[in-house]
Amino acid sequence: MTVTEQPAAETTSTTGPVIDTDVHEMIGDINFLDFVDEPWKGRLHPDNWMGISIPYSWPTTGGLARPDAIPDNGERAGSDYNLMREQHLDAFDIRFAILTGLLYPSEFKVQPDFAAGIAKAYNDWVAHEWLAKDPRFLGSVHIAAQEPEVAAAEIDRIGSHPQMVQVMLPVISHDTFGRKYYHPIYEAAVRNDLAVAFHQGATIETAVGLPPFYIEWHTGISQAWQSQLISLVIGGVFEKFPDLRVAMVESSWTWLPHLMWRFDHNFRSLRREVPWVKRLPSEYIRDQVKFTTQPMEIVENPDHLYQMFEMVGNDEFLMFSSDYPHWDFDSPTRSLPPSFPADLRRKILFDNAVKFYKLQDRL
Amino acid sequence: MTVTEQPAAETTSTTGPVIDTDVHEMIGDINFLDFVDEPWKGRLHPDNWMGISIPYSWPTTGGLARPDAIPDNGERAGSDYNLMREQHLDAFDIRFAILTGLLYPSEFKVQPDFAAGIAKAYNDWVAHEWLAKDPRFLGSVHIAAQEPEVAAAEIDRIGSHPQMVQVMLPVISHDTFGRKYYHPIYEAAVRNDLAVAFHQGATIETAVGLPPFYIEWHTGISQAWQSQLISLVIGGVFEKFPDLRVAMVESSWTWLPHLMWRFDHNFRSLRREVPWVKRLPSEYIRDQVKFTTQPMEIVENPDHLYQMFEMVGNDEFLMFSSDYPHWDFDSPTRSLPPSFPADLRRKILFDNAVKFYKLQDRL
C-alpha cells in the first residue's frame, strides 16, 4: 500500500491536539538544593558536582540545546517554565507534555545511596517546581535502579501523585535491565499503574564502546535501546508482568522490523536456552512496547516509511515526541511526512499516547 | 511493488549457479603447525593454545557446528575437504566458494607479533591445503591489523595469489577500523585489487557488552557491523579509497534502511565535525559496500523483504552466503523466499558476487 492511496492531511501547519512524550525540564538555578536531604545536600557543590555528562565536545551550534531555547538569564535550556510554555506548549496545541528530565540517578556508576538521595530530591523538585505549575505536565518517577528495593519504595512513595505517569530508566551500556535483580522495579510500576520509559542516558555506548566522533556515537546509540529491549524479553519481564507498559523514548524505531525478524528467527533456533520465555519476542514487543517519534528520520520516499508501519504490524506503537529543548528537536508540524494519512497522523500525535498513558479520563 | 507482481522462480529446489561468499575452512589436525615459523611454532601447543573462542556455552545441538558436518574422525566441522566437497560444493551448483576461516589474528588482544606470525602461517596453509585442492575455492588474506604496516606487507606478499580475492577483517568491539591508523591496510587492498571483508570475530560485543544469554548476544551483534560501517564512512575510508570494495559478511542486512536514513539525517546536522566526509553516508554505502545473505531472516510476508530492497535502492548489494558448516547454515535452495523474482534470485545467488569479486574472466 502506498501513502498516496490514502486520504492525506489537509495541511501540515495545523496538527490538531498533540501529546508530547519527551520534554526535558532541566535544573537551572540551585533552588534544586532546597529539595535535597542531608547528607547529600552538604556534598553537592554546583561548581564541582555537575551530574553526569556526555563525554564528547559538541559539533552542534548550541551544545545540547536548541540555541533559541536558552533563557535570557543564561541558565540551561529547559530550565525556564515561562519560556517553555510560550515557545513550546502554547505555540502548538500541546495538551500534555511528559517531562523526562535528564539527570538519571540510575546511571550513576558510583555511590548508590547518593543516587537514591538525588532521585528522591528530583521527584519532589519536579512535583513542586513543574507539575504544580501547569496541569498539562505529566511526570516521570526518577529512581536509583541500582538499589531495586529502594527504587520500588520511591515508586510507591511518589508514584501515586496524580500527574506521575511513568518510571524513568536510562538506556545505559554497563548493565541490562532484563536481569532478575531489577524485577522489583517493574513490579512496583505495575502496582502503581505506571508505565516504564527508557530514555537515553549520558553513559550510553555503542557496540564499539565510545567511537572517536560524536556523529558516530549519535548514529549508533539506538543499538543500546535494542539491546535493552532484547534483555527485557529474554529476562522474562514481559512474560512475568503482562500488564507492564514500556515506552522506548528517543530510540528511533525504523530498526524495529529488522529486530523483530532477527529476534524471532533466533528464538525459533535458540529458545531452549531461555525456557521461561513463552511467546515469540515480536509478540511481547507488539503487545507491551511503544516508541516515540523523535529523532524522526528524513526519508526521501514517504512510502518507505509507511511500509515500515505495515512491517511492524500495527499503527499504535508510535507516539509523538519533540525532545524540546534539545538541538535535534522535532516540531509537531514538521516531523511527520505531509503525505501520511490524517488518521495515522492523529494516532501518532495524540491517540496512541492517550491510550498508552491511560489519559482518557483527563481529556 | 509486491513480489507477486513479478515473475517468480519456477521452483526452489534448483538454484542455477551459486557463489557462496562465506564458507569456513577450519584447522582440523595439527598439520597447520608445519606452516608456522619459529619462534611461534615452538609456542603453540594444541592442548593449550586454542585460539580465541566465543565465551558463551552453546544452546545449539552441535555447538558452533551443523552436527552432520562434523567429520567421522571427530575433528572440527569444516576441516575435511572431502566432506565439504560432497556435502556442500557438489550437493549444490556452487561455482565458487569464498573461504573465510575463523581464526582471525586481527582480534588477538595480546602479542601482536605472534598474531602476525599466525596470519602468515594461516595464509600459506590455506593456499597449500585448500586453494590448491579445488579451483572453486577463493581465499581471504588474513592479517594482524593491529600492526598495519606488517599487515600491508603480508597483503603484498600473498595477495597476488590468483585465488585470493579479499582481505579479511574481523568485526570486533574494542576498536574501530575507520581510524587513520588502519588506512595502510585499505591502501594495500586497493593496490592488490582485493576486496576487504568484515566477518564476525569471537570478541564481538553489543551495545551492552556481553549480555547474559547467547540468544541476546546473537540477536544483538549485528550492531557491531553497523558501528564498523559507520566508522569506515566517518574515518573517510571510502572518500580516500574510492576503488575500495567492502563486503559485510554475516552481518544481516535488513537494518540497512534504518542505518542509511539515520546516518544521512545525522550527517546533515553534524557534518561540520567531519569535513573530510564529502558525500552522504548512504552514497558511499550504496557505491562501495555489499552484504551477504546469511543469516537470512524468516519474514512472514515476503513483500516486506522485497520492500527492503527498494529502500536500499538497488538489487546489487546482496550476495548469497551459507556460513557452511555452522549451526545456522542457510541452504542455497531454501534461504531466499520462493516468491522472489527469478532475476533477483539469480543476482543474489550469482551475478552480484561475480561483479563484486571481478570473477567474469574465471567463468
From TrEMBL, chains A, B:
This is Amidohydrolase family protein. It comes from the Bacteria. It holds the Pfam family Amidohydro_2. Residues 57-359 form the Amidohydrolase-related domain. The keyword Lyase applies. The keyword Lyase applies. Keywords: Lyase.
